[in-house]
Amino acid sequence: MKNYIDISWPIRADMVQYKDVPVLNVTQTKNFADHGMFQSEVCLSSHTGTHIDAPFHVLPDGQRSESLQVIIGAACKVLDCTNVQQAISADDLRMHAIEAGDIILLKTSNSFLPATGSFEYQFVYLAANGAEYLASKQVKVVGIDYLGLEREQPGHPSHKVLLSQGIAVIEGLRLEHAQPSERYMLFCFPLHVVGLEAVPARVILK
């Protein structure tokens, strides 16, 4: 019996792609008729689906993907932000119990958007002052349920605030079935790729 929730974005040909820019290409390289086997080649962006941003994404001297840590069985909090219309602000976050070292997953109305089809440009994002508040609380990880942490913020301040403080950023979570009232353990496995600014990840709640 399944006793976990896979909160990873399904990677498939018709998946939502950030700002509708192609991030995935699958090519068949061998087939049964000609080769006696089937084989594919997958080309994908480092920001495809559920992924973790390394500091180098927005900080020229920041650490790269090899610095990203596997998270196994760490307690996390799913915050109910489903009533937020545009941007999650510091005031929205003050309503929740947040402590130093917390892993924070932001569940918004984004979680009920389809995983396939066109990109939703008006997705709910984390405002710069919301990121500043989370940094001031010394959280460990911030995750959000769409393919970007922020939008329409020149200079990417939400990313910079968190990543400059060593706070991991997970984007592209699917939190529809995660209940904020429950306690969860987070399992997060970033691909072990060296030298990049981000890598896809498999993320599970138990």
Give an overview in words.
By secondary structure, the protein is of the alpha/beta class. The chain contains four helices and twelve strands. It has one domain: 3-Layer(bba) Sandwich (Glucose Oxidase, domain 1). Helix 3 packs parallel to helix 4. The chain starts with a strand and ends with a strand. The mean pLDDT is 96.
Brief rundown of the structure:
It is built from 4 helices and 12 strands. The protein has helices spanning about 30-35, 90-95, 130-135, 155-165; strands at about 5, 25-30, 40-45, 50-55, 70-80, 85-90, 105, 125, 140-145, 170, 185-190, 200-205.
List keywords for this structure.
single chain, 206 residues, alpha/beta, Glucose Oxidase, domain 1, two-stranded antiparallel ribbon, 12 strands, 13% helix
Task: Give the name of the CATH superfamily.
Answer: Putative cyclase
Average pLDDT figure: 96
CATH classification class: Alpha Beta
Number of helices: 4
Provide the spatial order of strands within the biggest beta sheet. Answer: 4-10-9-7-5-11-12
Outline, from the CA principal axes?
A: globular
Structural class: alpha/beta
Q: Between the first and last Cα atoms, what is the distance in angstroms?
A: 13 Å
Total strands: 12
How many separate domains? Answer: 1
